[in-house]
Design brief:
By secondary structure, this protein is an alpha+beta fold. The protein contains 20 helices and ten strands.
Length: 569
């Protein structure tokens, strides 16, 4: 059950008209009162003699009793409470009881307080109610509404238990502010997929990804087409910033600006500054402390896959502050990957980054600096430019998405162990989008490897089977039964042709992290081995391996998508 406290208003009659009206899309069915501060409150929905104006005057009476100079400008309080789609349909009596619990818990009308605020609860759909209240008590005082949103959430958790409804994960106060109903309606009118607040939050996060200074961050905001206002101290130091979409205007045709801190808690300038303080070197043999940007998108993606691999190990074994920093930096990598990937994967990658944003914040304070390799990877992705959807660019995109999937899955497990329910759910949602992006990105490059494996000579294929059974006997039979075995066999042959020990590579690739969460162990090992052995991700760029371990040059074309068995990740 989700409670939403909407922005306060100044006109009671306007909200009443909306609650009893047809809705923006004729979705309001049979609007009627289910509860109110007074059982005799008129109900314009069911009583033909009752009017909106009567209800408005009754609710506003304590406000109008004050001298005009002492009346609050925004005195209209509005709370909606919505059940989950799978919940049973509650009766009017149930919703009435829930409404009384909500006004009591939030401080609008505490139990037994005869001078409390006036309120009414309107139901115009099976799954939710709206509560309207005026913020002057009958004794002329203001209600005490400190933390009413958090108290409304807590009461909804108790309601879910009492009515056997779907349990919604409890929040921890680190989520970004949800768009208001006015912002959502405005986006619908203007044909936007997302509200201005959400678009700005995404654009600002992309500007943060891999940025190394305030100046670079502000320049990225401007280059992204945002209107930017900055506040500068007398010392010349930047104190804060605000952003607006050029075409998002208020009633006076002025741009609607949002401060970074109102978009998300970690987008305030002081919090962003902490990411730039990364003097602590990254640890581990796979760290990528390169100062210069890679020469192209494919190289950047390889470096990112390496950094993601190392980050998975940190999340599995590191301290909380170090893990929190890596998770935040993983969000930067996803933002940068979505920004620079080809059209056929961009939508799912964008959704993955959008979902994972919630997983990057918790009450565990991040120790920035340890995340240097991931932040460098995000920077490399941005500076290397857009990737093509084919060839080495396309194949290394599949490689990095594969590794990002494990990184996000590890994040979900870590949050779950810490009882961070909302963050864990967000990471799992991001993983599903990455799974979908991987299917699109990997199909052609893995099909090419599959065909190479099918065309290996039987002696050479038997040789790869022997390597597999030698290195990972516990996984060998499962891998050999997978359709992707042929792609792995081709990769082992390529590694041997390049002078590597296939059995040693396999042992290292499987020994450093479990493979239980992989849908296809073969696919995962293909990308790990090709990255570790520095093999081209695009198999069409390699000569065919020979039984002797060398290679022959053979003309070959990319196979169609139908030439390899399709699978889910």
């Amino acid at each position: 059950m989700i409670p939403s406290i909407h922005d306060r208003g100044s006109e009671t009659i306007g909200l009443i008209h909306y609650l009893y009206g047809p809705g923006t899309k004729e979705e309001h069915i049979d609007p009627h009162l289910v509860a109110a501060f007074d059982p005799l409150t008129p109900d314009p929905g069911r009583d033909p003699k009752a009017t909106y104006e009567q209800l408005q005057r009754l609710l506003d009476q304590p406000v109008n009793a004050l001298p005009a100079a002492k009346r609050p400008e925004k005195h209209v309080w509005h709370l909606s409470v919505r059940a989950a789609p799978e919940d049973p349909v509650l009766s009017d009596e149930d919703w009435a009881a829930i409404a009384r619990r909500m006004v009591a818990s939030t401080g609008i009308a505490p139990d037994g307080d005869e001078a409390a605020c006036r309120w009414a609860a309107v139901r115009h759909a099976d799954d939710h109610i709206h509560i309207i209240a005026t913020l002057v008590r009958d004794d002329g005082r203001r209600p005490r509404l400190h933390n009413e949103a958090r108290r409304a959430q807590a009461e909804c958790r108790r309601v879910e238990v009492d009515y056997d409804l779907r349990r919604v994960p409890a929040g921890d106060g680190t989520a970004a502010k949800r768009p208001t109903s006015a912002e959502r309606h405005k986006a619908e009118r203007e044909g936007r997929d997302r509200t201005a607040r959400e678009e700005l939050r995404e654009t600002v996060r992309r500007a943060v990804a891999g940025a190394s200074s305030e100046e670079e961050f502000i320049d990225r905001l401007k280059n992204a087409g945002l209107l930017v206002r900055t506040k500068v101290l007398p010392s010349g130091d930047l104190q804060g910033y605000k952003v607006a979409l050029p075409d998002d205007r208020n009633g006076n045709k002025e741009p609607v600006y949002y401060a970074g801190s109102t978009l998300a808690p970690d987008l305030s300038l002081p919090r962003i500054r902490k990411r730039f303080s990364d003097d602590t070197p990254s640890q581990g043999p796979d760290a990528t402390p390169s100062a210069a940007a890679p020469s192209g998108p494919a190289t950047a993606r390889r470096h990112t896959a390496t950094a993601a691999w190392q980050a998975v190990l940190v999340i599995d074994r590191g301290g909380d502050a170090e893990v929190a920093a890596h998770i935040a930096a993983a969000g930067e990598v996803l933002d940068a990957l979505a920004k620079t990937s080809a059209a056929h994967t961009r939508t799912e990658l964008r959704e993955a980054a959008f979902a994972f944003e919630r997983a990057t914040r918790s009450h565990v304070q991040a120790a920035h600096g340890h995340d240097r390799a991931l932040r460098q990877a995000a920077r490399d992705l941005v500076h290397s430019g857009p990737a093509l959807g084919r060839g080495e660019d396309g194949a290394t995109t599949a490689m990095v998405i594969d590794m990002a999937f494990f990184l996000v899955t590890a994040t979900a497990h870590w949050h779950a162990k810490k009882n961070h329910a909302q963050q864990a759910a967000a990471a799992r949602q991001a993983a599903e989008h990455l799974r979908a992006a991987y299917q699109v990105a990997a199909d052609i490059p893995l099909a090419a490897l599959y065909q190479r494996g099918r065309h290996l000579s039987q002696p050479l294929r038997n040789k790869q089977i022997a390597y597999l059974r030698q290195a990972v006997p516990e996984l060998a039979e499962q891998v050999l039964a997978e359709p992707g075995w042929y792609a792995l066999a081709a990769t082992l042959a390529d590694a041997e042709s390049a002078g590597h020990d296939p059995a040693a590579l396999l042992a290292e690739a499987t020994g450093r992290r479990e493979l239980g969460s992989a849908d296809s162990i073969s696919d995962v090992l293909v990308w790990r081995l090709r990255r570790m052995a520095d093999l081209p991700a695009d198999a069409t760029a390699m000569p065919a391996p020979t039984a002797a371990g060398g290679s022959t040059r053979a003309a070959r074309t990319s196979p169609s998508q139908g030439e390899r068995p399709r699978r889910t990740r």
